[in-house]
Specification:
By secondary structure, the chain is an all-alpha fold. The protein has one domain (2-185). Helix content is 76%, strand content 0%. The radius of gyration is 16 Å and the shape is globular. The protein starts with a helix and ends in a 6-residue tail after the last helix.
Length: 191
């Protein structure tokens, strides 16, 4: 249990720093529930962390019926990640970098956080669980489903917010996806 909390704490901190320090200042979004939460923040000013927790509720209630262990791990990950988002909100705007540098650094930090959590079978948000369920039902690769869902979120954001800078968000999800895949695929010698 202590290792699980340490992993959630580390992953959530990395995600929150990456989003608050590097993504929020440019009004960009990443994929998944975080991306939807950020989009709602940009449109209506709702609190990102709170919206993240609320949007995860229906997905995790569904997961409770399908896989209780994944539900409990994911619930801890989602709640702690949402709280960390709010805790690290003051980091927004503390570093001034060009947009491309901010996108790359932020995505790397977020990707490490997401990858470490997923490697330990902990969900930082509900979209990865949803993608796994869809993949099981449709036999489509889970990675293809994740990238498709993230791209739909970003393109919807581009349409609603009408800001071409959101195209940088496609780079964000690519880097996060690549890092998460590398971290979850790497085999340790002790395994």
């Amino acid at each position: 249990m202590l290792k699980k909390l340490a992993v959630i704490g580390f992953g959530s901190t990395m995600i929150s720093i990456g989003i608050n320090m590097f993504i929020l200042p440019f009004h960009l979004i990443n994929g998944g529930i975080f991306g939807i939460s950020l989009l709602l923040n940009y449109l209506w000013g709702v609190k990102t962390g709170l919206m993240f927790i609320l949007l995860n509720i229906p997905i995790y209630l569904f997961a409770l019926k399908k896989d209780p262990i994944y539900f409990y791990n994911g619930l801890m990950g989602a709640v702690i990640s949402g709280c960390m988002m709010e805790l690290f909100l003051p980091l927004n705007g503390t570093i001034q970098l060009p947009i491309i540098s901010s996108v790359i650094i932020g995505a790397i930090i977020i990707g490490v956080g997401v990858g470490v959590m997923l490697r330990n079978h902990i969900s930082p948000g509900g979209m990865d669980l949803l993608a796994l369920m869809i993949a099981k039902w449709t036999k489509v690769n889970v990675g293809v489903i994740m990238v498709t869902m993230d791209a739909v979120i970003i393109l919807t954001g581009l349409f609603l917010v009408k800001d071409a800078r959101l195209l940088y968000s496609l780079l964000i999800i690519s880097i996060i996806g690549m890092l998460a895949t590398m971290i979850t695929s790497y085999k340790l010698r002790s395994e």
